[in-house]
């Protein structure tokens, strides 16, 4: 294990991250409402920490294997998340405890969107911009992680594409091809962000709101610059724009990468339509909209049917993709609807997307496996392979997905019991853990809008849940395996 090389790389990454502190400092200078000093101090501290880590190991440049890649990912997220708390601690308003500052920073980086801050409309523009920027940076990190690192773990999801993908999907070491793929992904991600910001601005948002909300939309983060979230704008056009970009961002970025690579060949639409996960994802969205619309129209919840349908489309896509934007307090809707949407967040976005949850690819395989077992009850001798598109799925992949599913439920149960032990009511604890582990953000009950009322001890557990959910659990669990540390 090349520990010193890992420290050197983490130092470089931290130095790069420190530069991002200058962006909110510039925003503070533009609007003159405070915050510049806190971000300049955070920039200096982060730069010094990164420089020390890099300089102490700058002579160690060994070639890294997949094992080092896992350790870099975990170390970077822990160190980066810790340094990201600095502005929240240095700001005089809002005054956050250490646990709340960590919670807010990790909620941003993991694109969860749960918040320990109230009164967003009165906060300085710099801190609002910073929260949104954290989600945008975290979202890009998630995409690279999912496409370049996670497949090497063999825990289902992105390795389903290994036979079809070029580049990092077949590499077993940290090689230049991963860097090439990451550059293409950065371009796609940045292009979608710019397009989203432009659409928001044309729809009536201020330039500041358009840019900041494009950050949290394309990253499926859910942070807003207003306490009322997207309901602040009260615009059907903005709602539809949000839904459109959420659906794009919840799709597998490996598909976007392939579509971008073959754009000149005219096969872009076929790439999406031939993908089993994409088709299943769209069916889920349509099913949720139809069922929830039927309930709200039957209850005549809003003033007219079009309003019912618009609200359902927005909330169904926002919650099921684990974004967490709201246009109204959906927790007060007929009880069946919010509970269905919250449970749908367990499915989440597609593998290789910025969405959270179990991921659509894994849920699809679990469904196909369940259907196969039912047929085997009737015909015990039946040979019935599971297919992914036109390819027969390896039984080891199916087994790894079941292992991931079991680990996911185990972590959920442990975190739930831990939060309850901290004094949180069981229903609120269930929703808080669900929202954090699925990287959703809002839940039901006492955590429907924020986690201010959650005890500090429970916030630490929820922070761990957010990281577990974002790093897909096994990225962390593999570090506790003795085999991982063997030479």
From TrEMBL:
Entry membrane topology: Multi-pass membrane protein
* Location in the cell: Cell inner membrane
Q: Which residues cross the membrane?
A: 12-32, 38-57, 69-90, 133-161, 182-203, 238-259, 280-298, 335-368, 401-427, 460-485
- A GO-annotated cellular component: plasma membrane
One GO MF term attached to the UniProt entry? potassium:chloride symporter activity
> Per UniProt, which keywords does this protein have?
Cell inner membrane, Cell membrane, Ion transport, Membrane, Metal-binding, Potassium, Potassium transport, Transmembrane, Transmembrane helix, Transport
Which residues bind K(+) per the record?
A: 111-112, 220-221, 322-323, 439-440
Which one Pfam family would you cite for this protein?
A: TrkH
Q: What does this protein do?
A: Low-affinity potassium transport system. Interacts with Trk system potassium uptake protein TrkA.
Family per record: Belongs to the TrkH potassium transport family.
According to UniProt, the name of this protein is Trk system potassium uptake protein
Q: What is the lineage of its organism?
A: Bacteria, Pseudomonadati, Pseudomonadota, Gammaproteobacteria, Pasteurellales
